[in-house]
Amino acid sequence: MSYSPSIARLIEEFARLPGIGSKTAERLAFYIVRSSETEVSGLVAAIEAVKRGIRPCSICYSPGETDPCPICIDSRRERDVVCVVEEPKDLLSIEKVGSYRGLFHVLMGSLSPIEGVEPDDLTISNLLKRVENEGIKEVILATNPTTEGDCTSLYIVERLRHLDVKVTRLARGIPAGSHLEFASRAILSDALSGRTTFDNDGPSDAGE
Ligand SMILES: [Zn+2]
């Protein structure tokens, strides 16, 4: 016995979402089957509203209601420092610290050979263009201290090597394997101010 075509289709659509396996997709589909029509229209309307009103900033890829985003057009920010993060939520974590005054670049993920995420799936080539064309003097790599995050940072360092730019990374205050979003404000603040230079011989003190 198999599911009716419309249920099978909904399961298929859910299974396409990141981090949703077939079991979870099935559970979500049957949650929708059980839900009232009002609940379902609320969900559909929320999805459509995001699609209509939210777009990635064409400079930093942070999603928002305006393009360019408020950070990219803020003339009070330091325009020659770019903090590179994996996801929009990481940008928010760093903004909450309150001490960072530079710009951002959101990669929209991290490199993962296992999940088939390659450099072209991220916004790395646009980051390189920004560094080359916009007078960026420092790139702060603020990827998560995970295997994927480290791998992504190393790849970017390689790609930036021929350019005249200082490349730093967050100090190692955030536990390995953890994520920026779970770091306390104090730890993130220390990680930012104590950031170290990435060079050919590995990290050394940037002398902040
Ligand atoms: Zn932006």
Give a description of the structure.
The structure is a single chain. The protein has 208 residues and is of the alpha/beta class. The radius of gyration is 20 Å and the shape is elongated. 42% of the residues lie in helices and 12% in strands. The strands form 2 sheets. Strands 4-3-5-6-7-8 form a 6-stranded mixed beta sheet. Strands 1-2 form a two-stranded antiparallel sheet. The termini are far apart. The protein contains 8 helices and 8 strands. The structure holds zinc ion. The site of zinc ion has 8 residues, from helix 4.
Give the tags.
single chain; 208 residues; Helicase, Ruva Protein, domain 3; Dna Topoisomerase Vi A Subunit, Chain: A, domain 2; 2 domains; six-stranded mixed sheet; two-stranded antiparallel sheet; elongated; disordered C terminus; binds zinc ion
> Helix/strand/pairing class, anyone?
alpha/beta
Number of strands: 8
Mean pLDDT: 90
Report the portion of residues in β strands.
Answer: 5-15%
What CATH architecture of the largest domain would you give? 3-Layer(aba) Sandwich
How much helicity do the residues have? 40-55%
Distance between the termini: 65 Å
Low-confidence stretches: 200-208
Task: Specify the number of helices.
Answer: 8
What is the class of the largest domain in the CATH system?
Answer: Alpha Beta
Radius of gyration: 20 Å
Lateral strand order in the biggest sheet: 4-3-5-6-7-8
What binds here, in terms of ligands, is: zinc ion
Largest sheet: 6 strands, mixed
Instruction: Give the number of domains.
Output: 2
CATH topology of the largest domain: Dna Topoisomerase Vi A Subunit, Chain: A, domain 2
General form: elongated
- Elements, N to C (H/E): HHHEEHEHEHEHEHEE
